[in-house]
Amino acid sequence: MKQISILGCGWLGRALAKRLLEKGYSINGSVRSERKSNTLRALGILPYVIQIENIGIVGAIKSFVSDADIIITTLPPGLRQNPDADYAMRITHILKSIPPHSNCKILHLSSIGVFGASQGEVDETTVPKPTTAVGNQLLEAEKAVLELGSNATIVRLGGLVGDGRHPVKQLAGKTGLPAPLAPTNLVHQNDVVSFLTSVIEGSFWGHTFHCVSPLHQKRAAFYTKECKENELEPPQFLSEKSDRTKKVLDTISAELFGFVYNLAGCHFKDC
């Protein structure tokens, strides 16, 4: 039995923890408040209250990581809620908490936001050129993780849908939306969980992966159709051209571990 510690047992972290528990792994999970601990405990996850801040870590981080075979970081950058958050520094604090000479593996969940919106078609070999504060923070965090070499793997996730979450809920009925022809770069939570589980079980360390649906649909057409099929008011997009051309490709997983996106359509009905 392997011990896995998941830093950030929120929407995605809990879903991944459930799958790993089913496969016989022992799971530690971190939350930011004691109130959320009971939810993890009820699932069979050993909860830790840990807060990762710019200046350091509050909580029993040494115990959390000391016996872990694998540490999974699922922390969001958090700059929308806290513009002063230094995401790269927080990831660095986590990495420094790992005991010296440890053979612990790191699975760092990053985002396709590391690429600029106008970078066009990109794959795992493309050099990210972020144009936002969040993108720059994501890239700096990745650089820190990459220093671990073959002990670490980075997975850049597309826009997450599933389990009640879908952007069509926020876009329905809105007007003046930009980038009607920009490609979607979504991925379903279920596929993400399967993808990450495959990485862990196959011991695919020392890689940078993209976990994004292979179906890249035009924004206006996709969200308009989704709204109509689910009896929501369709959004109205601007007709002006946009430089939002980013299309993120997963060119590795199918060949390396036979991965198939079972919910590639990322439809609202599947959420």
Q: How are the SSEs placed, and which strands pair?
A:
Elements: E1 3-7, H1 11-22, E2 26-31, H2 37-43, E3 46-49, E4 51-53, E5 56-58, H3 61-66, E6 70-73, H4 87-96, E7 105-111, E8 121-122, H5 133-146, E9 152-157, E10 159-161, H6 168-171, E11 186-188, H7 189-201, E12 208-211, H8 219-229, E13 247-248, H9 253-257
Parallel strand pairs: 1-2, 1-6, 2-3, 6-7, 7-9, 8-13, 9-12, 10-11
Antiparallel strand pairs: 4-5
Helix pairs in contact: 1-7, 4-5
What does this structure look like?
It is a single chain. The chain is of the alpha/beta class and 271 residues long. It contains 9 helices and 13 strands. It has helices spanning 11-22, 37-43, 61-66, 87-96, 133-146, 168-171, 189-201, 219-229, 253-257; strands spanning 3-7, 26-31, 46-49, 51-53, 56-58, 70-73, 105-111, 121-122, 152-157, 159-161, 186-188, 208-211, 247-248. A 7-stranded parallel β-sheet has the order 3-2-1-6-7-9-12, with helices on both faces. β4 (51-53) and β5 (56-58) form a beta hairpin. The longest helix is centred in the middle third of the chain and has 14 residues, at 133-146. The model has no long low-confidence stretch (mean pLDDT 95).
Helix content: 25-40%
Q: Provide the β-strand percentage band.
A: 15-25%
Number of helices: 9
Distance between the termini: 32 Å
What is the spatial order of strands in the main beta sheet? 3-2-1-6-7-9-12
Strands, count: 13
- Globally, the shape reads globular
